[in-house]
Amino acid sequence: MARVVFDAVTKRFGDVTALHDFTLEIADGEFVVLVGPSGSGKTTALRLVAGLETLTAGAIRVGDRVVNRLAPRDRDIAMVFQDYALYPQMTVRQNLAFGLKTRKMNRDEIDRRVRRAADMLDIGSLLQRKPRALSGGQRQRVALGRALVREPKVFLMDEPLSNLDAKLRVQTRTEIRHLQEQVATTTIYVTHDQVEAMTMGDRVAVMSEGVLEQVGDTRAVYEHPANVFVAGFIGSPSMSFATLGATRQGESLMLGRGEISLTLEGDSAPADRIPDEVIVGVRPEHAHLWTEGNGLTGPIAGHAEYVEMLGRETLIGVTAGGDQRFTMLADADTPVKTGEQVRFGLEPGRLYLFDAMTQQALGMV
Amino acid sequence: MNTASRTQVTLNYVLIIVCSLVAVYPLVGVVLASLYPSGPASAPSGFALPPSFNWHNYVSAWEQGGFAASFTTSIIVAAVMVPASVGLSILGGFAFATMRFRGSKAIFYLFILGLIIPTEATIVPLYYDVRAMGLLDTYWALILLETSGELAFGIFWMRAAFLSAPRSLLEAARIDGASSWRTLWQILVPFARPAILTLTVLTFADSWNEFFLALVFTVNHMTAPAGLASFSGRYTTNIPLVSAGAVIVAVPILIVFIIFQRQFMRGMLTGAVKG
Amino acid sequence: MDAEPVPEVPSRAVVVGGRRRPESLPGAARRIGYLYVAPAFILYAAFNLFPLAQGVNVSLYNWDGITPGTWVGLGNYAAFFTDPAIREGYVHVLILMFFYSFMPIVIGLFLAALLSRIRIRGLTFYRMLLFLPLVITDVVTALAWTWVYDVNGPLNTVLKAVGLGHFIPAAGWLGDFNTALPAVGVFGMWGEFGFCLILLVAGVMKIPASLYEAAWVDGAGAVREFFAVTLPGLRYELQVVLVLSVIGTLGTFDEIYVMTSGGPGTATSVPAYLVWRRLFQTGQVGSAAALGIMLMLIVFVVTYGLNRLMERGAQE
Asked: Which residues of chain B does A81 touch, with a Cβ-Cβ cutoff of 8 Å?
């Protein structure tokens, strides 16, 4: 059985800490996506599992073996590289068979595995070609195939889609996921694209600057972000944030700064202690232009910085209360123009509160 | 200003053609001279065509210059020296490019030092060393000395070639479980084929053209250039005959050059980078 | 599943690396590297490094190669200042540098400037011709030029034809004390200029067209354009070709041996030829060794100096 465990893993490159105290358990057969901006440590974590880097502290287990000191070839893992890393002078078939030949597998078994992978990836007709005669999408499949034939305990994928054009990316996304479900191999997938993360992963591990910010399934990460970073990273267009002062007045919660003043009623206000300064986050789909009797909290007055017609809907960026920026989604035919004064409100119960100092989530209101 | 006027274009062609003619003229002159009747009396006077085409000069030169022997020597020396030198450079360059081991930097710099050590600095002790080893006037003297003489450049060249391989290629090989030997010969060497070809061609040219070493270490088993020098010393006044000998010696390297010009130029122009 | 903590690898042991870390992991030292380098290094040490040390040793003696030598310490090196033959050799090489290094560069620059940056059809063919002088065995090309300089050779024929026959020295170009060295120089100039030209032309092609266009818009004439755009753009190539040709000139041997044997008298002797003579003909083996070491030191100093000079120039 092949679960992967990161146990307080730390990796330092000289003075730079690329990964700090990283702990994560990945269940057998699970598809986990490590997502984050560059420098977040996600690729480092992947390479540590592969054995392409050695960790500074902690332990990594594959199956139930500690693999810290094992060579990559002994860890029973296979990797798909961002640039595919296909051996340029070998045919596709030779590329696929290489990792098996080095393990002295017998010819029939190699043939069987190569044929199976070729069928699954539909590259049977390409077996005699060399990488330079293949398109980007084809090369990517061969790279996947090379991992498939090894039938390893874990697949490691390092941004395999980033070199494909947008359309191909969407198509290949589903194919990879489908493939993984077929072989049921534990997979660790690294990407900087949060859409990829959300659509592909059983669970998503959001990372930033070497630290694991939050791990959970798509819903958890989207609807219950643990801190400001995760809340702002996941979701597109991203959440708007405003730093406001918070005061309780009886059963209500008053949030305001400058011209912004929001009153939140008892049943949606969290009962715990609220610090004086909070960061309020709201997703664009929960901010609407003001109409009377709409049940929204507000109104907030501001002026429209930009209006982007997306076809299906319109994205409006508003600056209010001095320098606080909000984005909201409105209907496609909204008549707002750039520079106009607008008034908008926020859906109660959909506001995220974060401690302004620790950036941790406090709850929703 | 990439569009040039007609006069500029013509000027360009004229200049290039004139320069090429200047470069080639003495060589063409030698060929022409070789066809004059043999003997001290007839000296070629420039671009005039010979009164008769004496092709048999080549036969005479071949026999009297002992070129059968000297060519054999040159070929044997090159045939052993080139694979040895290139092979050792591949092995060493590979280690320096992909592995870390204590002192590797120091050892590499020692090799780089070899790029500056002129033959003259070591020729004196080498003469006595070779003599003491009983290898004077043998193929081995030339083979060993020429091989080791090429190692500095060869290792530098191959290390640079291997360093240019994408890191992910090596990592994939690592994960695939390839040993260092397999990684070198099945992945890196095919990848660096053009660089290896260039090195081979340059090494061959150096071996074939090597004169100083042959002069010092051989008397009876001379290489082609040394044989030519000796031949010209014996028949100084018989210009057509010696010219024929010169053409004979020039032909092999000329053919290699024509076939592999691209490699030669790449090698000489980028090898010039080490400065 | 067991929840017992995994014994943490002490970070010091892993980071310090070396013996503790298995060699198959990245970052770990791989002793097999020594094995790959060994054959090359053994050969190199045996035939290059060790003899170098030996050479230094021999250079400290006066030795005729047969009888035991006598210690002179740095005497052979001091001879650099006292022995006119040695000084003469280096002076000659300096003169040759004018022909082997300076002239080809000047000609190359001049031509590179004249050639506008357009595609020339059949360039590969011309390039091949221009490279020939450098590729063909030195002995062959030197012999070719011996005949160019011959009493009845093309040079004299042309001179006589245009009425300049009285310039021809009686002893022949290579036999006259004053013309022998320049004659060898011209040979070298011929040998090097093709390579120079190709290198510089390639360098010019690399200069962005936009620089030339900017100069054109600024109203720069051909000369101004050359000094403002072309010359600075060729800084790197010039450095390379300068260092290479200077170093190459210091080691001149083949053509001296073939064309003049250092003569007439010692009019064309050069350091490398001196080494050969003293080793085989005059029995001054210690001195020959010293000359070789001396040459190496000079090569080193010149390379270093030229590189510093060019780098300094690049910063201005």
From this structure: 168, 171-172
Pair B53, B74 in one domain: no
A vs C, Cβ pairs < 8 A, gives 48
Inter-chain touch A99–B193, beta carbons under 8 Å: no
Domain that holds residue B203: 60-269
Chain C 10-49, CB below 8 Å of chain A: which residues?
11, 14-15, 21-22, 24-28
pLDDT at C18: 38
Residue B3: is its pLDDT beyond 60? Answer: no
B187 belongs to a structural domain = yes
Q: Does B76 touch chain A (CB under 8 A)?
A: no
Q: Which of B16, B98, B143, B171 to mutate to test the interface with C (most CBs of C within 10 A)?
A: B16
Residue B275 placed within a domain: no
Picking from A98, A101, A155, A162 by the largest number of B CB atoms within 10 A of its own CB, the best residue to mutate is A98
B120 and B232 both lie in a single domain: yes
Please report where in the chains the tokens 């030996």 appear, as a residue. C54
Helix orientation angle between B6-34 and B56-64, rounded to the nearest 10 degrees: 60
In a domain, B257, yes or no: yes
CA angle, residues B248, B251, B252, in degrees to nearest 5: 115
In angstroms, the CA A209 to CA B80 distance is 56
CATH of residue B93's domain is: 1.10.3720.10
CB contact at 8 A, B189 and B59: no
Q: Which of A30-44, B151-165, C223-237 shows the lowest mean pLDDT across its residues?
A: C223-237
Tens-place pLDDT, residues A312-321: 899 999 988 7
- Spell out the domain ranges in chain C: 84-315
Rounded to an integer, the average pLDDT of B167-174 is 93
B64 and B34 assigned to the same domain: no
Gap between the Cα atoms of A47 and A244, Å rounded? 41
3-state DSSP call for residue A37? Answer: coil
- Assigned domain for B1 exists: no
CB C28 within 8 A of CB A70: no
Q: Which CATH number fits domain C84-315: 1.10.3720.10, 3.40.50.880, 3.40.140.10, 3.30.420.280?
A: 1.10.3720.10
Number of structural domains in chain B: 2
Q: Kindly identify which residue of chain A lies nearest to residue C23, measuring between CA atoms.
A: A71
Residue A157 CA, distance from chain mean position:
14
List chain C pLDDT tens, one digit each, 316 residues.
344 444 444 433 334 333 455 666 666 667 889 999 999 999 999 999 999 999 999 888 888 878 888 888 888 888 888 888 888 999 999 999 999 999 999 998 888 887 766 767 778 888 889 999 989 999 999 998 988 888 878 888 888 888 887 778 888 888 888 889 999 999 999 998 888 888 888 888 888 888 888 888 888 787 888 888 888 888 888 888 888 888 889 889 999 998 888 878 888 999 999 999 988 888 888 889 999 999 999 988 988 888 888 777 666 5
**ipTM computed for the complex:** 0.87
pLDDT (tens digit, 9 = 90+) per residue, C136-154?
999 999 998 988 888 878 8
C21 touches B at CB < 8 Å:
no
- Identify the CA nearest to A95 among candidates A83, A84, A104: A84
Residue pointed to by tokens 């506001």: A351
Q: Is A69 on the interface with B (CB under 8 A)?
A: no
Residue of C nearest to A63 (CA): C1
Other CB atoms closer than 10 Å to residue A315's CB: what's the count?
Answer: 15
DSSP code, position A136: H
Whether residues B24 and B79 share a domain: the answer is no
**Is residue C234 within 8 angstroms of chain B, CB to CB?**
no
Same domain, B214 and B241: yes
Tell me how close the Cα of A86 comes to any Cα of chain B, in angstroms. Answer: 7
Half-sphere exposure of A74 (CA within 13 A, CB side): 13
Chain A positions in Cβ-Cβ contact with residue C1 (cut-off 8 Å): 64
Contact C9/A at CB under 8 A: yes
Do residue B172 and residue B241 come from a single domain?
A: yes
